[in-house]
Amino acid sequence: MIDLGISKLALIGAVALIVIGPEKLPKVARTVGTLLGKAQRYVSDVKAEVGRAMELDELKKMRDTVESAARDVGNTIQTQASEFENSWSHSDAAAALPVEAEPPAYKHPGKNWRLKQGATPHWYKARNGVRTKALSGAARVARFRPRRTS
């Protein structure tokens, strides 16, 4: 890498002051600073992209190893299951097992799904005087209307 010390920077600054001139030097310094900043951002973006690519490669390798291990486990389970089925079908114990009847058909419990059931039992509501039926406005007025005594 380029070794820039304080003496070399001072020499570059003096030459720039002589060549560019004191009027344009601040503008040139700002332009050089922005270009250096853009270059640093570009380098950091490239480094981040390379790092992401390396991580992606590592993840792909890890995925391949996990998939191969899963395939191996699946193959061993399949071979052991087929060996078990073969031994089960050839054993005498399989012939001694009773044949199970077909399970009974599904019967609906017969609940009325249109009727909403509350969580509080009706006997509790009746004992404590809780209303269990809704009254319309006209029925409520008729129920609580004072009776005429004539």
Automatic annotation (TrEMBL):
**Is Signal given among the entry's keywords?**
no
Query: Which species does the entry assign this protein to?
Result: Rhodoferax lacus
Question: Membrane topology per the record?
Answer: Single-pass membrane protein
Classification via HAMAP family: TatB (MF_00237)
Q: What is this protein called?
A: Sec-independent protein translocase protein TatB
Q: Which Pfam families match?
A: TatA_B_E
Classification via InterPro entries: TatA/B/E, TatB
GO MF assignments: protein transmembrane transporter activity
GO CC, one annotated term? TAT protein transport complex
What is stated as this protein's family in its record? Belongs to the TatB family.
Q: Which UniProt keywords apply?
A: Cell inner membrane, Cell membrane, Membrane, Protein transport, Translocation, Transmembrane, Transmembrane helix, Transport
Question: Where does this polypeptide localize?
Answer: Cell membrane; Membrane
Summarize the protein's role: Part of the twin-arginine translocation (Tat) system that transports large folded proteins containing a characteristic twin-arginine motif in their signal peptide across membranes. Together with TatC, TatB is part of a receptor directly interacting with Tat signal peptides. TatB may form an oligomeric binding site that transiently accommodates folded Tat precursor proteins before their translocation.
Keyword Cytoplasm annotated: no
Q: Which GO terms describe its biological process?
A: protein transport by the Tat complex
**Assembly and interaction partners:** The Tat system comprises two distinct complexes: a TatABC complex, containing multiple copies of TatA, TatB and TatC subunits, and a separate TatA complex, containing only TatA subunits. Substrates initially bind to the TatABC complex, which probably triggers association of the separate TatA complex to form the active translocon.
Q: Which domain of life is it from?
A: Bacteria
